[in-house]
Amino acid sequence: MSTLSQRQVATLQQMGITPYQVPARPIELCILSEDPDTLSHPLVQDVLALLSLSEEQVALAQEDTEVKAKRYWHMKHYLPASPSQLHSTVLAQLNQADAKRRLWQGLQRWL
Description:
Layout: H1 6-14, E1 27-32, H2 42-50, E2 58-61, E3 69-76, E4 85-89, H3 97-110
């Protein structure tokens, strides 16, 4: 499928026709984290493997960024999990056994 050139779009608009744009499909998972190395962390890799997701299906964003996704993982603080959102502490604190346990319990409810 080819895209229209600027000239073609302008010509269509002059005729009162707005070209249809297929909306972008939401990504599978958006991880909201301040750490830019989040996706390379072994624990995050384990979670992605559990969810059968590749890195291409995941977006890494900060809290104030708007990303359209099917599911969100907030890495800031714990809140109750919902069908589309998972909350955990920041990545540095997920090395503690209690924090990992809470994450896996949240994942069980989330799946």
